[in-house]
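TL;DR need structure tokens for one chain.
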Amino acid sequence: MSEDFALRMKEQGNAFYKEKNYDDALCCWASALGSLRDKTSPLAITIRSNSIMAYLSSGLYERVVKESTLLLQDDPRHAKSLARRGTAREKLATNRGSLATFQQRKEFHNQAVEDMKSCIEILNTEADPGQERLKRECEQSLKRLSKLDDDYYTQIAENLDNSINKEKFDSGLWNTKYEIKSPWRASAHP
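>> reply
TL;DR here they are.
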């Protein structure tokens, strides 16, 4: 296959992305990337970066972290990948629906801060006025993250523990002494 095919598929993927049809966009970009021999060429990096944005828009934060990390191994100064990985890590840290522990949330938080700082540092050394918006977004993310402290993450962890305990109590897995009932034998407590 050729670079022309990759360009056509990239553009088709971009059109799907604009329509918020992320699955079809990802399929097009996968075809485009598959047709390229060099997965580190500028076109391949752009396609991979587009895919990362689709994963982010779809809420697939773990996938964003994984794919961004792989792209950054090939292009360590790819500011968009740093920003997207930082955003995904911020979401993983603050998502109240996540089952992440306090420690995991703090780690995601610290990693997000480092990603955003690195992105800003790269953007400060490049004279690309087209990247000002990305720089502002990274600065805003840092500002949000700086307002979150241990108390915030402790509160999330406590709320998570309470909701899990309530689910277990409501389902009958907890007895009145808050011990786990064995579902396969008679009550351990007379």
